[in-house]
Amino acid sequence: MRKLSLIIATMLCITSLTAQEFTPKVVNSNDFRGRVEGAFEWEFVDDLSIEASLQMRLKNDFSTIDRFQTGVGLNYDASKYFNLGVEYLLINTHEPGHWERPRHRTNLNLEGNVKVGRVELSLRERLQTTFRCDSVNRYEKMNPELVLRSRLTAEYNIRHSKWTPYLLFELHNTLNAPAVVANYKKDPYSVDNYITRYRAGAGVKLRMTRNHRLDFYYYFDYDRSYNIDYKGNKGDLKGYVQENEYRHIFGISYKFKL
């Protein structure tokens, strides 16, 4: 029994040394943001359409430009209940005094929908891949970054009305976020997975004519990100900060559908 107790104690000691837990410093902030978007959609063959868009985002209580985002995508309606799409986005991010190097993003979308009375429910799964143009330490930031976005939307069809209100809820789940280590030059490389964003939103769509449509919406985002910083020469963990941002996003989108 004494030998067994010694073995168990030794194993627990080794486990406590190898499975270290790191507690980040927590920083909270609030922000009001805005989005304005214009899009063009053309169904050039049955059930297959192309879409191009340009979006401007504002941050810091609508006072500064956050980014310009240009996108082009292809959507295919596989059936009455299922569609899929692929999209490319060029992201130009603005920081005080300068523009960051552009980022390239690709989205693969799979969406299913079903009607229950006058309510249409849809579930979209999006695999998002973002490529950075600057050089980064993979222990601090991933390149490319992989995120799975799951969105549930409920639209209500008002009889004889051009207005369609809706509610949505979305989760962003990291697939290859860097795990925190004491020293990235000595410890083995590993990745972490966690939910980085919770989003709840409400909006209303207006079909003005057959070709012209508007979308007014409000999102509340809880965005959780981690800022990991290592000493470049020795590789020791220098800083570990959890940044919690509560965002109130107001947006308007216009689409011309040919």
Architecture overview:
This protein has 258 residues and is mostly beta strands. The chain has a domain at 69-247: Lipocalin (Beta Barrel), CATH 2.40.128. It is 7% helix and 66% strand. It has one helix at 2-18; strands at residues 25-45, 48-59, 64-77, 82-95, 98-99, 103-116, 119-131, 145-156, 163-174, 177-178, 191-192, 195-207, 212-230, 237-257. The chain has an 11-stranded mixed barrel with strand order 1-2-3-4-6-7-8-9-12-13-14. Strands 10-11 form a two-stranded antiparallel sheet. The longest helix is centred in the N-terminal third of the chain and has 17 residues, at 2-18. The termini are far apart.
Helix content: under 10%
The structural class is mainly beta
Distance between the termini: 80 Å
Strand order of the largest sheet: 1-2-3-4-6-7-8-9-12-13-14
Report the radius of gyration as a whole number of Å.
23 Å
Could you say what the CATH topology of the domain at 69-247 is called?
Lipocalin
Task: Report the portion of residues in β strands.
Answer: over 45%
What's the order of the H and E elements?
Answer: HEEEEEEEEEEEEEE
Work out the number of β strands: 14
Assign an overall shape. elongated
Oligomer: single chain
Main beta-sheet annotation:
11 strands, mixed, barrel
CATH class type of the domain at 69-247: Mainly Beta
How many H/I helical runs? 1
Low-confidence stretches: 3-19
Second CATH tier, the architecture of the domain at 69-247: Beta Barrel
Mean pLDDT: 92
